[in-house]
Amino acid sequence: MSKLLVVFGATGQQGGSVIDTVLNDPELSKEYSVRAITRDPTRPAALGLQNRGVEVIKGDVDDPKSLSAALAQAHTVFLVTTTIYDDHLKSREFRQTKDVADTAVAAGAQYIIYSSCVAAESLWGRSVPAFDSKAASEAYIRTLPVKSAFFLPGMFMQNFLTNQSPRPLSQEGDETTYAIANFISPDARMPLIETVKDGGKYVGAILANPDKYAGNNFFAATELHSYREAAEIITRVTGKKTVYVQMSLEQWVSYLPPGYDKAMTEMMRWIESPGYFGPRTKEDVEWTVQQVKEKLTTFGEFVKAHATDLFQQ
């Protein structure tokens, strides 16, 4: 009899990637049956999962009453919470995680895989709310009578299609120069992950060897690149000249919505130093890559695959 894997965020990038990995893997698809949890089972993405043989159940991390049915008979739970940048960020994510984890344990679940982040405040002495909220939730899960492992995704390559996409900077003849802009050093290196294609590959490695990885953190990224290197790769792959522009902090903040600005500023400062996953970012990423059997996507491959979507005019 297969183990029931319950996936929260099933129609999002992380949860969807986990489901894709399990369904497409000959061994994992035999070992696990999949239940997708979504707030709206009528959405096209949820219906698409049903058409692939996935059980889809309505559930909401903000509605504790919905969690008992969502987690009934669960063996393993994959949980990701959505970061909303407001004054309740930390308390909300901790409450959501606690409710799911407590209900999972009460339902007899044997394993929890949580999408987490490093504890920036304890490492750095300054809070990065988007990281510390998940780190506090991870710490709580570790106190529970259940095995657990933790998936810590790096910076999403998908960000280069949205808020970090190259924008037109200047025009000389027929050639447009594009810019990626931020306030951090052009040489600050960031671990990059192709979330949609690769996120599930890391979680799949845990699912394939749960006892081996119990208690472990997976620092998930293919490779580290600075903004300067990312711009050079985009130029080389697409043929469109792209540069990194280091703005002043004040100018950068002026482009951000109120409330979001402070949280993002602290996150980018953290990435610059000591590093996205802390002082051992490079070593932790290298160890994690070695645990994954499937090929992971390089940033150059991502750019090639999304060349037509990369530039916002």
From TrEMBL:
GO terms under cellular component: nucleus
Pfam families xrefs: NmrA (PF05368)
Cleavable signal peptide: none
NmrA-like domain segment(s): 1-302
Keyword set, alphabetical order: NADP
Family: Belongs to the NmrA-type oxidoreductase family.
Protein name: NmrA-like domain-containing protein
